[in-house]
Amino acid sequence: MSTYPNYHDGRRALVTGAASGIGREAAIKFAQAGAHVLAVDINADGLAALAAEVDGIEPVPCDLSDYDAIAELPTDVDILVNVAGIQTVSPI
Q1: What's residue 4's pLDDT?
Q2: CATH code (residue 48)
Q3: Which of 9, 53, 62, 83 could form a disulfide with 23 if both were Cys (CB 3.0 to 4.6 A apart)?
Q4: How far apart are the C-alpha atoms of 15 and 39, rounded to whole Å?
Q5: Dihedral of CA 48/58/26/81: which sign?
Q6: Is residue 41, in this structure, part of any structural domain at all?
Q7: pTM for this entry
Q8: 87 lies in a domain?
């Protein structure tokens, strides 16, 4: 049972970077609020684990640096949350 009002019942949300961090939490919150979440990330295993844990999440593995792969993503969405990113930490 969700502890969040179903503000997004019937809506589709596409969340990038959904396998971890902020993207993962955003995907969970949208699903808890009633949205069908298309969880996008290059990490297919992380997406599968997320989808197994939370109802309403559909894993969509995709490398967002591949323009052809991006063209294959679903476009029938009501909400877009673009969180994907790569961080490189190194000395200046």
Answers
A1: 62
A2: 3.40.50.720
A3: 83
A4: 5
A5: positive
A6: yes
A7: 0.86
A8: no
- Residue 74 in any domain: the answer is yes
Asked if 14 contacts 70 with a C-beta cutoff of 8 angstroms, the reply is no
Beta strands at 79-82 and 12-16: parallel, antiparallel or unpaired:
parallel
In degrees and rounded to multiples of 5, residue 59 shows phi and psi of -75, 135
The amino acid occupying position 76 is D
Question: How many independent structural domains does the chain possess?
Answer: 1
Q: What pairs with residue 40 in β-bridges?
A: 16, 60
- Tell me which residue range forms the domain holding 72: 12-82
DSSP assigned state of 65: T
Residues 29-68 pLDDT 10s:
999 999 999 999 999 999 999 999 999 999 999 999 999 9
d(CA 56, CA 22): 18
Amino acid in position 82:
N
